[in-house]
Amino acid sequence: MSSNNVKKFNNIPLSVLDLAPINEGSHAGQSFKNSVELAQHVERWGFNRYWLAEHHNMPGIGSSATSLIIGHIASETERIRVGSGGIMLPNHAPLVIAEQFGTLESLYPGRIDLGLGRAPGSDQATAYALRRTLQSSGDDFPNQLDELQSYFNPGQTARVRAFPGEGLKVPIWLLGSSGFSAQLAAQKGLPFSFASHFSSDFTIPALQIYHQHFSPSNVLDEPYAMLGVNVIAAETDEKAIWLATSQQQQMFSLMKGKPTQFKPPIDDINAAWTLQEQTTFQKTLATNSTIVGNPDTVKRKLENFLNQTKANELIINSAIFNHEDRIRSYEIVAGMMN
Question: What does the alpha-carbon distance between residue 40 and residue 290 come to, in Å, rounded to a whole number?
Fold first, then answer.
């Protein structure tokens, strides 16, 4: 591959995906304080965005009221873009989301992103508790998106309008882990963020769909794709591998349908499970875009990932139990941008 085709960190923006982890023995209030401190650090280090994800019924994730925590992070920072990665639109009336993000954009003009997903961000029982009906589903997502976009359009004559919201330029992103949102983002000419951090098998096919079917719009002249990647960076490979056991425990608890608070690292990850469970977990982990290691290891693997995918931007999730270690992981990645 020629040097002209090689993507380096100083050529693309890097961003942060935060699930506001609630550590074992801690509480949501501390989680939000940690998120504010992390956002302030990454803003100084030159990261482009700070996104929070909507999840429900998960004791280890604090970002369920996503719009509220977005406003809190935006109020404690100055320049970095803050948004949703994402809002699960089937859980909400599009009018409510237009009003919430219209409010956020009015408070923090030019800094708010609205990333949208079509999954429930929860199990079916929780989805019912959120909606009181399951008639609204991912199949309705294109219609919900059209309705949401209409509320931001100026000069509306409709009976129902969004105030604040109407006439505001809130960037809408589509998020996905399959080809559905890639196709829809292409058709609508919207930026696309793919969840390669937990669905890496379909990353390249989804990007191909997005690029091949992209139609220019008043939002974008050409495709723009941001990819999620898990990064656990530390001074040594050994420490990074140890830190990564917290994320592994979280993933495994989700696989078993028994989510817990975010657990501290353990010395022997294999001692926690049966051989059958280890086999299942390792198969799942092998398909995820998870990069663990010292600065040289992380940089090499991230650059390989960039050159395989040709991503326009990377959004990094660093699920690390100790707050100082988590900040240090992002600091290591920030040093690669220079």
Answer: 24
